[in-house]
Design brief:
The protein is mainly alpha-helical. It contains 8 helices and 4 strands; from the N terminus they run H-E-E-H-H-E-E-H-H-H-H-H. Bound molecules: zinc ion.
Length: 246
């Protein structure tokens, strides 16, 4: 296909989609509509629909793997499910009610406590260096960072609940707890160029991959226990310094 013809197809597809969107004005909201297609490797929470969506693309290897044991699947896919759930209660989602309307449904006291807890996360991520002298803009990434942390804590609780009567054994030299966190870390394997990191530090509401993992596990004492970290090692924090929103 020549470049000229393919450009025409792209332009026409865009025109079709924008007309389809404009035609929705004045009509009831279609609650069955998804923002992404079935093969997309992604998931999302929509505060105005108050729904979470997981296409088939994100529920297959190397992410969710039915042939693997539960520990890495909970650490990885369980964490993603928890992440999307927590978006309903992050700095943005918490401002929408159950019907998706922008309406305050919290007491003033709850909101104050929520803000002091999220400040812990915001201050922590502001210290992380993206590249050279560029730090994370943690006011921009706060919602995603809160969802990453809350999601992984939820996944750990869910996995512990589901496996409490099972006699789990080490596999491939790693304990079940270690496999949970390895599954989590492998979810965001990435190789990023400094130029791209620099652009995304200014534009992407997600923190860079390494902090989406390290920034979470440093707040989970279960991680340092699983890997027998000493108190003075980078992934351990004293219990009173750990950030926890949900
Ligand atoms: Zn998210």
């Amino acid at each position: 296909m020549s470049a000229k013809i393919s450009q025409t197809y792209v332009a026409r597809a865009r025109q079709f989609e924008s007309r389809r969107d404009i035609n929705k004005i004045g009509k009831p909201v279609d609650h069955g509509e998804w923002e992404i297609s079935p093969p997309t490797v992604d998931a999302y929470y929509d505060p105005q629909m108050n729904d979470i969506n997981f296409p088939a693309g994100v529920l297959q290897p190397p992410i969710y793997d039915a042939k693997m044991d539960d520990a890495p699947n909970y650490g990885d896919t369980g964490g993603t499910i928890g992440h999307e759930l927590t978006h309903g209660f992050d700095d943005e989602g918490s401002q929408f009610d159950a019907k998706g309307n922008l309406r305050n449904w919290w007491t003033e006291d709850d909101r104050k406590k929520f803000e002091s807890r999220t400040k812990c996360v915001q201050d922590q991520y502001a210290q992380f260096v993206v590249v050279d002298d560029v730090h994370i803009n943690s006011a921009l990434t706060l919602g995603e960072d809160v969802a990453d942390l809350g999601g992984e804590i939820l996944a750990y609780m869910a996995w512990k609940g589901a496996s409490k009567d099972k006699n789990l054994q080490p596999i491939d030299g790693f304990t079940p707890e270690q496999r949970f966190f390895i599954g989590f870390a492998q979810w965001d394997c990435a190789n990023e160029r400094p130029e791209d990191l620099r652009v995304r530090a200014a534009t992407d509401p997600h923190s860079p991959a390494r902090y989406r993992i390290n920034g979470v596990v440093v707040n989970m004492p279960e991680f340092s226990q699983a890997f027998s970290c000493n108190q003075d090692q980078p992934m351990s924090k004293p219990a009173d310094k750990v950030c926890k929103v949900w």
